[in-house]
Write a structure and sequence with these properties.
- By secondary structure, the chain is of the alpha+beta class.
- It has helices spanning about 50-60, 70-80, 195-205, 215-225, 270-275, 280-290, 360-370, 380-390, 500-510, 520-530, 565-570; strands at about 35, 40-50, 65, 90-95, 100-105, 130-135, 140, 150-155, 180, 185-190, 205-210, 230-235, 245, 295-300, 310, 320-325, 345, 350-355, 370-375, 395-400, 435, 440-445, 450-460, 485, 490-495, 540-545, 555, 575-580.
- The chain folds into four domains: about 35-155, Mannose-Binding Protein A, subunit A (Mannose-Binding Protein A, Chain A), CATH 3.10.100; about 180-325, Mannose-Binding Protein A, subunit A (Mannose-Binding Protein A, Chain A, Roll), CATH 3.10.100; about 345-460, Mannose-Binding Protein A, subunit A (Mannose-Binding Protein A, Chain A), CATH 3.10.100; about 485-580, no CATH class.
- The chain contains eleven helices and 28 strands.
- Strands 9, 10, 11, 12, 13, 14, 15 and 16 form an eight-stranded mixed β-sheet that branches. Strands 17, 18, 19, 20, 21, 22 and 23 form a seven-stranded mixed β-sheet that branches. The protein has a five-stranded mixed β-sheet with strand order 24-25-28-26-27, covered by helices on one side.
- It starts with about 35 loop residues before the first strand and ends with a strand.
């Protein structure tokens, strides 16, 4: 059949799958490096984040591989395609800058690239590392925090000598930025979405903060003293659901999630659970909200949870914390390991006494300095104290001594114990004085033990206790022993079988009426209930009537305001009895 060039035909092309050519064997060094074209290569099949992978290369007088042409790329493709591991990509030495330009880690010019189809994608603008795909040998951009295998490369004529440690030149932070362990930090109160916050950080030569250890978390928690509300940090799962990554490409080695987090609904599961609403019924209503619950905030309130993390809607406007490298053009302040003068934190200032003393002597020294042993009233002051302990690697006395407060625990500066961080099994009944141990937990010890101590000054003082009001309590008998306190009378009734209704009937039988407790009364009653806790087996319950009064009574429940199960145990909240209040 005669055909013409202008006729249209369907063409079928047959392409062979990309496969490495025949396996050529290459010489290897005594330590297992493959020799090729004047260089040596190590295929490291152990998965590590990019930073750690690069450190391994450097310890072997190498760096992540720089690929300068098609021949070298094909050679490396052959090597990784032979591996039997499940990982699908390997780190190489290319990085992606924030302006979407590329560079090699050794500073050599980029003269060759081999991107896979639709790559680089610059997803979420936080894919700053490059990998070679095992399936094709082409390249992909990725967040540097993923743990992946890697390829190291070194010159064949490298000198195998012990590398001397490099000295990092002294550098500092710009005004309004705070220096901590070689990084600069700043909390911004500007209300912005997560992406706007990150862009603002980048415009300041930084990024949204990443938190890499519990010590760094302690420091960042102290910055929250200036925060008005929750603030953005750099953690997010925007690219891959439930796979949280730092936007500055650091590996996720530490987390500080609030209980129940990370949550798809940003804490709303608890809201619905408490109201007995089935979540599957609410999903259509929540779908739009769930789509954006991909960014992480550091919590400000309530104070006992300050510094904890939870997920939030990325579009919400909040303050944020930026983190950046120090500036070599700025001098670093001269500091000692622990401040020898008072250091300010909000309305308080602190000083560590670097002489080991008994608890009583430590307090005398603080008071001679117009201070007192420190009270730890919230998560921020706990974080500051933990930082001091971390620097010293030694325990610190704090201002709790049950010998001075009628066998109860109350701060020596008169604040009630509304926040605590007791170690498991604490406080012990036969030990009165309290110190913060090197793990940050509170523990009791004999008061004549000798430790360093923490003094505190404050511009805010504890409220004074209201005076005892006049009046008389009923006469005690073999069953009820009445105790006067602030215009009311209390009795503690042991019971292991009463349910709430039965306890209420008992209150009515005694003839008392129901009333509410204010916050100060609640905290004080918490201590009193703790005294009686050994004979209880559940939740303390309280009823009161005014002195010299009569009426129909009822029972109310004390709200201890304590957070964790451990704290509830230490406060005796786990035992039940009836507490009658007149």
């Amino acid at each position: 059949m005669k055909m013409f060039c202008s006729q249209l035909f369907v063409l079928i092309c047959l392409c062979a799958a990309v496969q490495p050519s025949s396996q050529t064997e290459y010489n290897k060094t005594s330590d297992g490096w493959i020799q090729y074209n004047g260089s040596q290569y190590l295929i490291n099949n152990e998965p590590h984040p990019m930073e750690e992978a690069r450190d391994i290369c450097k310890k072997n007088h190498a760096d992540l591989a720089v690929i300068n042409g098609q021949t070298e790329r094909r050679f490396l493709f052959k090597q990784i395609s032979r591996t039997a591991i499940s990982q699908t990509q390997y780190y190489i030495g290319m990085t992606v800058e924030l302006d979407k330009s590329f560079s090699w880690v050794d500073g050599s010019p980029v003269v060759y690239t081999a991107w896979a189809q639709n790559e680089p994608s610059f997803s979420n603008n936080d894919e700053n590392c490059v990998t070679v795909l095992k399936s094709s040998g082409f390249w992909n951009d990725i967040n540097c925090g993923y743990s992946l295998p890697s390829i190291c490369k070194r010159s064949a004529d490298f000198v195998n000598t012990t590398m001397s440690p490099t000295t990092v030149p002294a550098s500092g932070c710009a005004p309004e930025w705070t220096l901590f362990r070689g990084k600069c930090y700043k909390l911004f109160d500007n209300k912005m979405s997560w992406r706007q916050s990150r862009d603002h950080c980048i415009s300041n030569g930084s990024n949204l903060v990443s938190v890499r250890s519990h010590t760094e978390q302690f420091f960042i928690t102290t910055l929250m003293v200036s925060a008005v509300d929750d603030v953005w940090i750099g953690l997010n799962d925007i690219v891959s659901e439930k796979n949280f990554m730092w936007t500055d490409n650091r590996a996720v080695r530490y987390t500080n999630w609030l209980k129940g987090e990370p949550s798809e609904l940003g804490g709303m599961e608890e809201f619905f659970r408490r109201r007995h609403i089935k979540l599957w019924y609410q999903r259509p209503f929540l779908h739009h909200r769930m789509e954006y619950m991909d960014c992480v905030v550091m919590v400000k309130h309530p104070e006992r949870f300050t510094g904890k993390w939870k997920v939030g809607a990325c579009k919400d406007e909040r303050g944020f914390i930026c983190k950046r490298n120090t500036d070599s053009q700025l001098s670093a302040p001269v500091t000692t390991a622990v401040p020898q003068k008072y250091s300010s934190l909000g309305n308080d200032s602190y000083k560590v006494q670097l002489e080991k003393m008994s608890w009583d002597e430590a307090r005398r020294q603080c008071k001679a300095d117009d201070a007192d042993l420190a009270s730890v009233l919230n998560s921020i002051s706990q974080a500051y104290t933990s930082l001091q302990v971390d620097k010293l690697k030694e325990p610190l006395w704090i201002g709790l001594n049950s010998n001075l407060t009628l066998g109860l625990y109350r701060w020596v500066d008169n604040w009630f114990l509304s926040y605590s961080k007791w170690a498991t099994g604490e406080p012990k009944n036969n030990l009165a004085c309290v110190y913060i141990d090197t793990d940050g937990d509170w523990k009791t010890a004999a008061c004549n033990n000798t430790y360093y101590s923490l003094c505190k000054r404050s511009t805010v003082f504890a409220p004074t206790d209201p005076p005892q009001l006049p009046g008389n309590c009923p006469e005690s008998d073999h069953r009820n022993s009445w105790i006067p306190f602030r215009g009311h009378c209390y009795t503690f009734m042991t019971s292991t079988s009463d349910i709430w209704v039965h306890a209420t009937v008992e209150c009515i039988r005694i003839g008392r009426w129901k009333t509410n407790l204010n916050k100060t009364q609640t905290v004080t009653l918490q201590s009193r209930c703790t005294l009686e806790a050994d004979i209880f087996s559940g939740i303390p319950r309280v009823t009161r009537i005014p002195r010299d009064s009569s009426g129909i009574g009822n029972k109310i429940t004390i709200n201890h305001g304590i957070g964790t199960e451990q704290e509830k145990m230490s406060a005796g909240v786990d035992r039940t009895g009836i507490v009658i209040k007149l």
